[in-house]
Amino acid sequence: MKRSIVILIVLALLLSACSRDTAESAAIAPGEMSDMDTGGDDSFAAEAPATDGAVAFQRDALENRKIIQEAFLELTDVDTEGLFNRITTLVERSGGFVSSAELTRSGDEGRGPFVNMTVRVPAADMSSTLSAIEGLADEVTTKRIGSQDVTEAYADIEAQLRNLTILEEELLVILTEIREKSTSEANELLNVFQRVREVRDEIEYLEGRQRLYDDLIDLATVDITLFPEPTESPIVDEGWAPGEVVRDALRAAVDAFQAIADGLIWVGLGVLPVLLVIAIPLLGVVWFWRRRRKSDPQEPAPTPAATEE
Length: 309
Prior knowledge:
Elements: H1 2-26, H2 30-38, H3 42-47, H4 52-63, E1 67-77, H5 80-93, E2 97-104, E3 114-122, H6 126-136, E4 139-149, H7 151-180, H8 186-218, E5 219-228, H9 242-295, H10 304-308
Parallel strand pairs: 1-5
Antiparallel strand pairs: 1-4, 2-3, 3-5
Helix pairs in contact: 1-7, 5-6, 7-8
């Protein structure tokens, strides 16, 4: 069993070294490749004739590169909603799809919405698809095209997957041998099983990254913004319309009469009952006070003669 563990460790070290060598060889830029082939001597490169095999190799290398393509368009049109529908139909017919879309209505009546959309189109047909989309709009205000070369990263993932797959197969063989031995311990079985699970997790993670790269490489991403054309204000103001003035005046008079009627209704039904409830007790108090004052005897005023005595 110890011999199997030692073999496993040596195998893992060898596979790691192979992975680094593969990644380093894949990381060589095209410029570095040309320097290596010619030895850095420009005169030699100029004199050396290009053979058919070298040309074919360069062509295959360019075709096998992994390129992620992206584009951005800003379009202006009178009917942005109709343009959005036409772009959607065009993209679906070309083999792509609309990844996301957002329509925002403006406050101006008769003006189309603002549209932000992201479409995915086949990368091989991106140029023709962009030209077709541009032809659907009234005006193209902005256009940007970009690309990203992920050949090195993709080759590194492939190399790691190959090495991890070989390592997983060897681990499974060792795991089978441990299970078949009656003298094997549980810790040995658990250690190898744990290592198999870790390798499987790494393989699944790399396969997920590889699928993501494949999707981005096969389908280009195009972000599109649609702007409605601004509404034009009339050069000459509208003339005088007496009919509209009369209609507005009558409407104002009706509103005034309605306001007066509403005020009278509020006073009659809301204010007068409250005033009556307050006034009736006050009137009763005043009446009682006056009656009592009349019933009290008044002292006679002194005569002038009595005053002189």
